[in-house]
Structures are given as C-alpha cells and as structure tokens.
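Response to reviewer comment R2.3. The reviewers asked that we include at least one raw input/output pair. We reproduce the pair for Pre-mRNA processing factor 4 (PRP4)-like domain-containing protein here without editing.
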Amino acid sequence: MEDLPVVHEEIALSAMRFTSAEVPTQDKDVRQMLRSLGEPITLFGEGPWERRERLRLKIESQEEEKPGEEEDEEEFQEDELFYTEGSKELLDLRRELAAFSLRAAAKRLQREKDIRTRIPPWEEREAVDKFNKHLQKSMAVQVSQVGDDRPLTQGRFSPDARHFATCGWSGSLKIWSVPKCGLVKTLRGPGDRLHGLAWRPNSQWTQEGAGEGEGGVIGMDVDAGGDGVEGGLCLAAACADKKIHLWKSGSVKPFGALEGHEDRVNRVEFSPSGRLLASSSHDGTWRLWDLERKTEVLLQEGHARGAYALKFHPDSSLVISGDLGGVVRVWDLRTGRCVLPLEGHVKQVLSVDVNPRGCHTIATASDDHTVKIWDLRQRRLSQNILAHNKLISDVVYEPLRGRFLLSASYDCSVKLWDSDKYATTKVLTGHEARIMGADVSPDGSMAASVSFDRTWKLWKCDDLFEGPDSELYLEPSEVLNLPPPVSAPVQETSAAAAGGAGEGSRVKREEEDEPMN
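Raw output as returned:
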C-alpha cells in the first residue's frame, strides 16, 4: 500500500499549478499568446482544451527558469578585494597625515608620561572612583528646553563649552548658551532634515562672527590645533539633501556646501587638526573632504549597507566607521587600508567613540541594545555591555580623561558608566520620548541630551568636584583657553565630488535598513 501513488495529492498539486498560471480562457486569446511565445498555434488532433494546457505548461516552465537565472547572478557576484588609483593630491595628503599623526602620537605619549609623573596610577584610579561617586550623587537635570517645533536628531557642545548646538527635522540649526540654555541664534538650513552636526576643533561662536568673505587657510600643525584650517568655519551639518552644509562663526546662512554623496548624509566629523572633514552616508560610503581645497579627496567603499557611525582617532591616523549591517571597520588614513574589521553586533551600529585615555579603546553603540568595548591593541572585543532595552542612539566618552562613558537610548534614558569596570554610575531620566543623541562637555562637568519629544536637557552637578583639577591632565595651552580663529579671504563655493582611492569590497548591495533616527 505504501508504494501506491497518492492520486489525490497529485491532483491537488496539478490544480494548484493550473490556477497559479495566468492562462486566457478564450481559444482565440490562447492562439495569439502561443504565437507571441513562438509556439505552434495548433497541433494535429489538438482541441481547445489541449491547446490551453500546452500554453499553461509553457508559461510554468518559463516561471521556473527565472529563479535559477537569479541564483546564477547572485553566485556570480562574489566578494573581491579591489583598489582604485588615487590622485596626487590624495598621496600628498596621506604623507601629511603620516607626519602629523607621528607628531601627534609623540606629543600624546609625552603628555601621558607627564601625567604619570604628576599623578601616580593608584591616585588617578582613586580620583576616577571619587569622580564617578560625585556624578552618582549630584548629577541631575538643570534645564529642560524646547529645542524646535520638530524632533531633534543630534546635539553637540562647542569646543569652549560655552554653547550647545542642536539640529533636527525642521532643517534648522540652533545655538544655545551654556549653562543658561538661552537661544543665541537660529541658523537657516536648506529646509530638509539635518541628521548630524559637528563643531570644528578650537572654533568659537561669536555674535559678530567673521565678515562675509573672511577666513584663512594654512597647513597641518600639531601645535596650532584647529587654527590651521579655514578661518571662520565653525559648524558642519549632515543633511538629507545629500549635501554637507557649512557655517561660519556668527553667520546665519550657510556659506557653502560639499556635494558628492548619492544618498542622505548621516554623520559628519572634523579631524583633530580641523583641516579635514569626514562624512558617512546611506550610499554605503564614507568620504573625506579637504577643507583647504574644498574638494573630496577620498571616496571610501567597503560597507555592504549604509555607513552611519563615524569617528577620527585623536592622532588623525585612523577613522572608525560603522554601518547599518552591524559591521565596524577601522581604516588607516596613511595607507588607505582597512586594518581591523570589528564584527560582533547583530544590528545596525549608530555611534562610535574613542577613549581619550590611552586612545586604544573604542566603544560602539548598536540597535542590538548593547555597547561593545574594543581593544585596538589586542584587536578583539574586551567588554560587552547590555546597556539598554532598546536601540542605543549615541555613545560618548568624557573628552577630558575618559573617566566615564555616556550612552543614550530609545528607552528614554541616559546612562553613565565607569570607564574601567563599566558598571552603571548614574541613570538620567526625564525625556518623554526616545533620545536621539547626547554629548559630554569638553571638561566633563556637563552632559546634554536631545530627544524626539523636541526638547533637550542639560545635566549638571550641583556642586564642584573636589579632586584633581583638570589642569593636571592638560598642558597650560590646552585648558579651555582657546585663541580665536585666524582670518583671511576665502571663496564661497560648493565642492563637487572628485576621484577617491582606497580599499573596498565589491559586494552585493542589499536593501538598506532605515535607521530609526
């Protein structure tokens, strides 16, 4: 009995195939379709029903061939390593970056030695513990301010900690005073959504600002900090119109835009020297812009999905990028190679930051509700933090000495973490909707968060921390006493995309997951 064919199943399958094929019922239409398919209109002894059945079998055979063709195409598109020849300008830039990074690394190592001389490691550890206990005891919301009439997407403190900038879906960028949180200026944007912003290193916002056509251009210099770039340039914003818009200090209207991306721009970051600007986009690339020439000098592929998170190493030697597929890559700007792929997140990576203490530890935040800590020296994951129960939108180390780590999430909370043990120090709550971004002031005394509820909050300790002064960690010229930017003529132009070079991975492009923010 088991060997007998199951007639009922065969009839059911045949009926299902018959109904799935779109076959006309009129014999005239059947003949016409057979002719269009290159088949004989009628065969000897064939009636209308047999003719229609022949047409149905022909249509089904063609439908079965299509998936096979697609599979062949997918098998043909394999990952392969490729290089693109760069321009002479990019070669010169890589040489300058190599020289700059060596000087910056030597200066950073000397600073670490000086700190070790003035503060023994055990005393610094005790001071960090006391600082985190101080945060736990007295950090609280100081001001809650309505930031815009539409949701906010990102906020950043100015390098001198006197202002806080916010951007959002309204397309405008606003400057707020700190700590009073009064509105200083509303900068008119392009009218489309702004997804990210960045302050140029050592820039200052002034009411007067640089006059029209003022600015300055010199080369890279470790000692000059951010002054060796286009004078007057203060802010850059990533926009949904595929452009990066630039503002001068004190200017309401953007004075120029950088063009080249093929999809919305997600994040922008200035290099520590202030001369270069990096941008990530949904087009799967991140790009490097020379602000001195106002041109694109590098178009870096290598991400299978949209590039989102972006951060420069403090020495300007590396760029860390994260994409919507959960992959983080560390790129060497001096050689153009991906020196370290970091795979561990299972969902989109939305933020990355480098610990200023030692500069060998990076933190990444993801939609998988985790913050992962990576050791660049050991080239591996060193800590996995189950930080929140929803998407983590931002992660920031304290810029002064990396004494704590801040994470912001769609669960409406901001958390502070001890940067040694990565234990929770403080949970800051108060927003009524998901938090889109957060930042820590340059001296580590304040934090700010921006939310989908259109408000931003300033978090601050009620009293001063009684511990080692911040000047112990810095050289006298670095203690938030920044000189004003230099000024010289500059042209207001938009930079079109130029050729780039570097290492990439030619992969099958998948439909990109739109990040929640």
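The chain has two domains: 25-61, 88-203+232-464. Residues 209-229, 474-514 have pLDDT under 50 and may be disordered. Further pairs are available on request from the corresponding author.
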